[in-house]
Amino acid sequence: MLTLTFLGVGSAFAKRNFNSNALFEFWKKPWKGAKPPTPPDDTLLVDFGMTGPLAIHELKQKPGFEHLRHETGMNNYTAIRKVFITHQHADHIGGLEEMALMNFFVFKDKKSGKPFKSELISTINILVNLWDHSLKGGLNTIQNRYCLLQDYFFIRTMIPGQPKKNNFNMGPYRFEIFPTDHVQIERKYDWPSYGLYIKHTQTGQTVFYSGDTRFDFPAYSSMLEEASLCFHDCNFFDDPVHAWIEDLKTLPEEIRRKMYLYHYGDGFDNPNLQPSIAQFKGLTQAHQRYALFDGK
Ligand SMILES: [Zn+2]
Ligand SMILES: [Zn+2]
User: Fold this and answer.
1) Matching CATH number, 2-295, of 3.40.50.1470, 3.40.50.720, 3.60.15.10, 3.40.50.1100
2) Tens digit of pLDDT for each residue in 118-163?
């Protein structure tokens, strides 16, 4: 069983919602009801932005999310086994320094007794830039020594477009990366950013998770048509690097009816927007667990 809980659903500048970061949780045995009977067997956090630590702090108070609370009361980052990074904007990576330092200094791996490391997954391009341009400043020096990214995380690199190297698994679920048209330097796809297409390898069912992207139906049409559920980036104004709701409204109705919108701005409850929002499955809510693949 795979579930999805957003730590936040806000845009990069939103203040009423946390950053759009998504926690996938996997249980070998399916369960029903509001509260899982056990902690998940595996976890994947897709992005961890600057509001991520506060979002987990709030989420861990909620029944059913106790595994995110350490016995000391702190955020339990050892509950996060895998972290996938879609791209390098701060609303997607700004919490990683805290996670890395707390895993290094506070938490221990129960088996080895060494500092806990989660698996950090992305393309080599993003991981190299993530270290060189974002994380190195705060993480490359600790008391009396220098550190590298691999001192804090197990690193796993994806190669987009290569069938054996563009995906990773959690139980029977395959997470395949695809390039998104988010920010262009000179041309499409020349600044790396990715979305995820998740497949239940036993039933063939799929879920679409856009990551940050401009509206690009031609690129995503086959995935959007096939998926049983879609989560799509959305902005309420004509934005050069995100999908505008007016463009998303041009999607076929059968796609809109299975599409949740996320990464939205603080004006989400403006009455004038509600007729547009009503054309979709809805706005994704933070801290609510969505069962994917019909709970299978
Ligand atoms: Zn973003
Ligand atoms: Zn972005």
Assistant:
1) 3.60.15.10
2) 999 999 999 999 999 999 999 999 999 999 999 999 999 999 999 9
